[in-house]
């Protein structure tokens, strides 16, 4: 009897063991690589890029030049409503766990905001948090997701890898994940900034397979500047220089390139290898005064000037020139943020941490205080290496 009971227990345990009950074949899923959100009338339009497994795997007999993704779009009164309506168009259930990019149209970001979208994405159990969120600059998200991209078969993956690389190597862009975005939305005294993506060239031709048939594509997707938010709504844009200044102030520059003009159309170019930023606060006349301290290390990467880099005084002069230029960039960046009444630089958060009593008394008025806030920028620029030559071969050629 005891053996029989044990046998039944063993059988019951086997039944309860985890198995492949929730297994899904790839061909039975609509794998989403990118999602776009636009305002359409008083509703929200959702566009999804779904992978075509047969095209990606290179199945024999597939027509040359066929798209590796298929876009579907639908509108609804809410994001979830639109996603639900997509099921009548998509051939398979949508699978969101492989989403790499979320694109929000500029009109949507300005008039509706990103809050509703982020609420849906943060609640959806399929969504991971490692996708990037960007703004379609002067465009609709659905148009961005309709552009054929060269080299990378999957446009969403192309946008992801391009942003990931340029954020490290070229400071004016920034990769923002879901968690960071939500933190900026809820952190006291800190506003949000998101990278913009622009369609360059002929949009209509860019939406056809012919866009990738030639060496020079008719239309390309290019990251361009940072969008400035107040609350969850877009209020303006930073240009390339201001976007770089923002990244410096935030301490997010990994590597980048900078230059100083040392003569008419002559330049010394630096490869920035390290940048450290600190913000300090002191009360001045009962008001907060912020100082941004930036320390930069760089190598001379290119030189077209008639300057002898073996002389210490030349290095010192170049360092002073680089410091003055960088101070100007950071100052203009803060001034631009102040003109937009958006504290993307986080001065309010610094006040909240360092002067909590002042912050508690003035938090409600910070949107009016920040545009008039006094600040200072201090930059220390150090040239570490000048390369294998201390003079340009252009100088030697002239001699």
UniProtKB/TrEMBL annotation:
Pfam families: Spore_GerAC, Spore_GerAC_N. InterPro entries: GerAC_N, Spore_GerAC-like, Spore_GerAC-like_C, Spore_GerAC_C_sf. It is a lipid-anchor. Residues 1-18 form the signal peptide. Keywords: Germination, Lipoprotein, Membrane, Palmitate, Signal. Residues 22-198 form the Spore germination protein N-terminal domain. Residues 224-387 form the Spore germination GerAC-like C-terminal domain. The keyword Metal-binding does not apply. It is found in: Membrane. Belongs to the GerABKC lipoprotein family. This is Ger(X)C family spore germination protein. It comes from Paenibacillus xanthanilyticus.
């Amino acid at each position: 009897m005891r053996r029989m009971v044990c046998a039944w227990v063993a059988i019951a345990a086997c039944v309860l063991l985890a198995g492949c009950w929730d297994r899904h074949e790839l061909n039975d899923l609509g794998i989403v690589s990118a999602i776009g959100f636009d305002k359409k009338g008083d509703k929200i339009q959702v566009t999804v890029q779904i992978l075509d497994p047969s095209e990606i795997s290179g199945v024999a007999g597939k027509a040359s030049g066929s798209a590796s993704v298929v876009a579907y779009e639908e509108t609804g009164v809410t994001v979830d409503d639109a996603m639900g309506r997509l099921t009548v168009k998509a051939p398979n259930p949508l699978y969101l766990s492989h989403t790499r990019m979320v694109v929000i149209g500029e009109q949507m970001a300005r008039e509706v905001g990103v809050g509703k979208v982020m609420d849906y994405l943060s609640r959806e159990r399929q969504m991971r948090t490692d996708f990037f969120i960007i703004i379609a600059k002067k465009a609709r998200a659905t148009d961005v997701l309709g552009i054929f991209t060269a080299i990378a078969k999957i446009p969403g993956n192309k946008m992801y890898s391009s942003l990931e690389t340029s954020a490290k190597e070229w400071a004016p862009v920034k990769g923002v994940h879901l968690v960071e975005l939500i933190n900026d939305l809820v952190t006291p005294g800190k506003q949000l900034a998101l990278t913009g993506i622009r369609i360059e060239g002929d949009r209509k031709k860019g939406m056809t397979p012919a866009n990738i048939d030639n060496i020079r594509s008719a239309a390309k997707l290019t990251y361009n500047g940072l969008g400035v938010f107040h609350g969850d709504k877009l209020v303006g844009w930073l240009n390339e220089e201001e976007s770089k200044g923002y990244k410096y102030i935030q301490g997010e520059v990994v590597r980048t390139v900078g230059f100083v003009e040392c003569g008419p159309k002559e330049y010394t170019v630096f490869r920035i290898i390290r940048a450290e930023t600190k913000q300090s606060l002191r009360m001045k006349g009962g008001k907060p005064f912020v100082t941004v301290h930036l320390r930069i290390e760089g190598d001379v990467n290119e030189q077209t000037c008639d300057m002898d880099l073996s002389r210490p005084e030349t290095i010192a002069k170049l360092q002073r020139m680089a410091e003055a230029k960088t101070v100007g960039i950071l100052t203009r960046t803060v001034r631009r943020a102040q003109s937009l009444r958006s504290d993307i630089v986080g001065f309010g958060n610094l006040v909240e941490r360092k002067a909590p009593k002042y912050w508690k008394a003035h938090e409600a008025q910070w949107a009016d205080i920040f545009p008039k806030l006094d600040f200072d920028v201090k930059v220390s620029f150090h040239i570490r290496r000048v390369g294998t030559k201390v003079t340009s071969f252009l100088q030697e050629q002239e001699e």
